[in-house]
Automatic annotation (TrEMBL):
Domain Helicase C-terminal: 215-368
Catalytic activity, as annotated: Couples ATP hydrolysis with the unwinding of duplex DNA by translocating in the 3'-5' direction
Keyword Glycoprotein: no
GO molecular function: 3'-5' DNA helicase activity; ATP binding; DNA binding; four-way junction helicase activity; hydrolase activity; metal ion binding
Source organism (scientific name): Subsaximicrobium wynnwilliamsii
Family per similarity comment: Belongs to the helicase family. RecQ subfamily.
EC number: 5.6.2.4
Protein name: DNA helicase RecQ
Keywords: ATP-binding, DNA damage, DNA recombination, DNA repair, DNA-binding, Helicase, Hydrolase, Isomerase, Metal-binding, Nucleotide-binding, Zinc
GO cellular component: bacterial nucleoid; cytoplasm; replisome
GO aspect biological process, one term: SOS response
Domain of life: Bacteria
Ranges where the Helicase ATP-binding domain occurs: 28-194
Lineage, opening ranks: Bacteria, Pseudomonadati, Bacteroidota, Flavobacteriia, Flavobacteriales
Length: 513
């Protein structure tokens, strides 16, 4: 039963807030209407409140599945401080404590019961006679091997929906690309749950990609022009953090290296120095930054390309937390791609890693608004160019690419949306190769429809279409290329498409460098 007090007064009473953050209200409404949902909200977006508040409005106890013991404890402490009856259960507790919590649970004395996924299976019998009003799965991306933080215990959560068919099952995460979102819903047995996607857009972050030539010179010039500013340079290897830091120091600017090879004390003290503005620049591996709350980081440089877009987004997200302008530079070189591919090869989820890497590479090669491409990756459609990325600031020359786009979309449709990028290019160019003939593709209507294009150029134009959200690559399904709703608008509703003229753009890039 839903309490009679309106939601807003409960928000004030229990949490002391006067209004909701974006998306909280819509999510809470769905939960109060007993819907299963998947919510994707950026870090700091206020996820916990979305399940905590409904938990207090329903009779009975809410189960919250949370992967990190420290996080669990923090949340429970904060709830208790607000006078809410909450407890957590995990393997770090001794049996006496565990039994005490279980008896509170059995007596219905808890509003929220936090539990680690590993402990959950053993507890399932205890839940049978309880009034479980809500099940919240926090950090839900851990269920997917397609996500970046896979936790095997999460894959056992699929039974929850069958044990509690009437109870809303709500999943939350800050990081899930489209494939992971689909996987979470499938595995939790809530395939039709609505997805709430809060905006990942951070408008104050300027996004720039530069060719990875003469990186040191470029970096020294950049930081030299921004004295007093705090920034982070991310490198791929420990060794390169050390050598780059010392080269920056040699130029008279203070910087410290940070990586997992340093002692805990050393890392702590570097971190403190940075947070308290005693050291302006950190040259680090991706080990640096998690949980660091520094509001005035003015720039982030990626000396090497990150291995996926999730990582890139997280790392640039450490700049400009105060909402003021921040500058992010990614150095892109093909050598990095090769190196990262080598790392990925032979790993247990090699296909996924390589697919994600290719998506990162496409972002770096994009010739249309970077922010549109970035947000697209997380399933968010931005309709206008952002005006705050390198491409928007210095756009390449464009041409009306509607006809070409229609040809590509119609080829994708005629190939039944099952073929990958390479085959689509082959078919459009009227390639004579055996794979095309084996499948009889020489007989489809768009065979050879773009025969004037060089292979790599056509591939690049199709990548632009992907980055504009017209086509979508399903990496976990052999990279098949599919049409999005936007493609249908182009095919059937005369929507026009602008494409960047790569020949022109490449020539200009050569002139500059
Ligand atoms: P997430 O888990 O999404 O990273 P949290 O749930 O930890 O975010 O919330 C981030 C911060 O926002 C917390 O300090 C929380 O108390 C605060 N917060 C949550 N909801 C609101 C709200 N409606 N108004 C103001 N602050 C809020
Ligand atoms: Zn832009």
């Amino acid at each position: 039963m839903i309490a009679e007090q309106p939601v807003l007064s409960l928000l004030k009473k229990h949490f002391g807030y006067d209004s909701f953050k974006p998306n909280q209200e819509a999510i809470i409404n769905d939960i109060l209407n007993k819907k299963d949902i998947l919510a994707i909200m950026p870090t700091g977006g206020g996820k916990s409140l979305c399940f905590q508040l409904p938990a207090l409005m329903f009779d009975g106890t809410a189960i919250v599945i949370s992967p990190l013991i420290a996080l669990m404890k923090d949340q429970v402490d904060a709830l208790k401080a607000n006078g809410i009856k909450a407890a957590f259960y995990n393997s770090s507790q001794d049996t006496t404590v565990q039994n005490d919590i279980l008896s509170q649970l059995a007596n219905g004395a808890l509003d929220l019961f936090y539990v680690a996924p590993e402990s959950l299976a053993n507890l399932s019998p205890y839940f049978n006679n309880l009034n479980i009003n809500l099940i919240a799965v926090d950090e839900a991306h851990c269920i997917s091997s397609w996500g970046h933080d896979f936790r095997p215990a999460y894959t056992q959560l699929g039974y929850l929906k069958s044990q509690f068919p009437q109870t809303p099952l709500v999943a939350f995460t800050a990081t899930a690309d489209k494939a992971t979102q689909a996987d979470i819903r499938t595995q939790l047995n809530i395939p039709n749950a609505p997805v709430h996607l809060a905006s990942f857009d951070r408008k104050n972050l300027y996004l720039e990609v530069r060719p990875g030539t003469n990186r040191l010179k470029q970096i020294l010039k950049f930081i030299g022009s921004r004295p007093e500013e705090s920034g982070i340079v991310y490198c791929l290897s420990r060794k390169s953090t050390e050598s780059l830091a010392s080269k920056i120091n040699a130029s008279g600017i203070e910087a410290k290296a940070y990586h997992a090879g340093l002692s805990a004390e050393a890392r702590n003290s570097i971190q403190e120095d940075f947070i308290n503005d005693r050291v302006p620049i950190i040259v680090a591996t991706i080990a640096f930054g998690m949980g660091i709350d520094k509001s005035n980081v003015r720039w982030v440089i990626h000396y090497n390309m990150p291995k996926n877009i999730e990582g890139y987004y997280q790392e640039i997200g450490r700049s400009g937390r105060d909402g003021l302008a921040a500058h992010n530079i990614l150095f892109y070189s093909y050598a990095d791609v090769v190196q990262l591919r080598k790392f990925a090869e032979g790993s247990s989820n090699e296909t996924y890693q390589i697919a994600k890497l290719e998506r990162m590479q496409q972002f770096a090669e994009a010739l249309s608004c970077r922010r549109i491409a970035l947000l697209n990756y997380f399933g968010e459609q931005l309709t206008e160019n952002c005006g705050n990325c390198d491409i928007c600031k210095a756009p390449p020359k464009y041409f009306d690419g509607t006809v070409l786009t229609k040809k590509v979309c119609s080829a994708v449709a005629r190939l039944k949306e099952v073929e990958a990028l390479g085959m689509v290019v082959d078919v459009l160019r009227g390639s004579q190769n055996a794979q095309v003939f084996d499948k009889g593709y020489q007989n489809i209507k768009t065979y050879g429809a773009a025969q004037d294009f060089a292979w790599l150029d056509l591939q690049q134009y199709i990548i632009q279409m992907i980055n504009q959200g017209i086509l979508e690559i399903r990496f976990h399904e052999n990279g098949r290329l599919m049409l999005t709703p936007l493609a249908k608008k182009i095919l059937f509703e005369d929507k026009t498409v602008r494409l960047a003229n790569i020949k022109k753009h490449l020539a200009e890039a050569k002139e500059i460098s």
